[in-house]
Amino acid sequence: MPDPIGVGIVGVGAIAEYVHVPGVRCSPGARLVAIADPNRDLLDRRQCEWDIPRTYEDPLDLIHDDEVDAVILCTPNHLHAPLALAAARAGKHILCEKPLALNLDEAREMLVAVSSAGVAHMTAFTYRFVPAMRYLKHLVDAGHFGTIRHFRSQRFQDWPETSLGWRQYRRLAGSGELADMASHRIDFGHHLVGPIAEVCGALKQFVPRDRDAEGNPVPPSDTDDWCSFLAFFEGGATGVFESTKLASGRGSGGKGHDFVEINGSEGSGIYELRHPYRVLLARKEGEYREVTVPREFWKLPEAQRSEVPDDPERDWRWDQDVAFLTAIRERRLPSPSFTEGLRCQAVMEAVLRSWQERRWCAVASDTKLSR
Questions:
Q1: What CATH number should be reported for the domain whose range is 5-126?
Q2: Phi, psi (rounded to 5 degrees) for 162
Q3: Does CATH number 3.30.565.10 belong to domain 127-302+345-354?
Q4: Does the predicted TM-score (pTM) go above 0.90?
């Protein structure tokens, strides 16, 4: 038997606890050997909760740990690029939370670094692994909908109007709702339809978020909490995207409104996160009907977890780490890779530029992305 893949996680907050730790633990041939976080109290608590042999306050110490083969980056966005570059130089495989970087130049540098180092790399577009999305992608690839003409996506959530921490500052996050939630839906568009060629977008901040949950004052937000844009795909399809955390009554997380509809020449399909094991399908000139996702799409075959989920809002998320670690073991590139993260970054940058200049803007082409 080959040696297990040693995994280190940088950043031990909620996303590590909810997604990545159980994801590593249901991945065959992998073990979590180290964690890093500057918060010593949280680090000590996680070491006890997760039974981790080694902890580091400095993430570079984890990156240079000889027993760490792969690094999962769960940090604020401004740390993605410097840590990914350090991990690539150290020869470590990398799974990085989205968005890949603060801007397009950083994302380009990250892709060049991992490609030059020959390490596996993955962008954490977690929602690709929802069973309903996996099945919808299968149907698209099988030609079930014919030529795709329209794509539309909505991510509506109802969050408290208090501080979002680092997520509400451009210098730490890059942008607000655009980077946080719309980035996943941009990836949906690329995944189902193909590259986006040009966009016309708008962003707005409604809430200053100048108080934390306890009512203490904090520096006000300088990022968007609503964004929307129109898009033309390279293949000719149209796209409509909207995302907000201020949709009263819509809930949050897996209960929030996450909706994708594609309309093709032969039929249409709808994905909804609230129904991760169901899609809606319609044929041309017909009506939508509910279709249960076939069981082979409920989990990745390598995932060491029950096919029937204990928590239908959660368990499918673990397949992301399974896909990453399986690709490392099989010596192939995981998907979605840093290339997909870079393409998403290019769209976000075009949306920001479009709003600043009040015009349609082209998305950076693949030729420019490969510099």
A1: 3.40.50.720
A2: -110, 180
A3: no
A4: yes
